[in-house]
Amino acid sequence: MIRGPLTHPGLLGALAAAGHGSQVLIADALYPHATGASRHVPRVYLNLTAGLVPAADVLGLVAETVHVEAATFMLTADGGTSAPVREFQSQLQDRRHGSGEHVAWSGLPRNEFYAACRGEDLCLLIATGEVRPYANLLLTVGVP
């Protein structure tokens, strides 16, 4: 029997197969799930209805399951950081407080973010029910 909070078979299998440098996309409900990643990338659809499952909940479970080395987010139309991304930054900071671990953060304009998500290192796309715009995170798996 597995231990830990994550029990979704598709997520567990994809995260177990991810190695150092692999990338996981946590996508909001507005992201183009069908075309926003290579066809070979597995998709896990958790977007049950608007607001369910929130991206922050998914981020928490993914961060408990794999070591997050870096996070790339989509910049807002005016080149800023969205409220959801600021929450994600705080969430990962709080999770790592006192551990000495550091997550490198970077932002990309929309089209560059889409291009990065279509890259060869993406191993999983998780579609959430997050309805706040600019709530997408491209996580890079690191070494604990």
TrEMBL record:
Catalytic activity, as annotated: beta-D-ribopyranose = beta-D-ribofuranose
Residue ranges crossing the lipid bilayer per the database entry: none
Domain of life: Bacteria
Pfam families reported for this sequence: RbsD_FucU
EC id: 5.4.99.62
Signal peptide as annotated in the record: none
Gene3D superfamilies to which the protein is assigned, alphabetical: RbsD-like domain (3.40.1650.10)
Keywords on record: Isomerase
Protein name (record): D-ribose pyranase
Organism annotation: Nesterenkonia aerolata
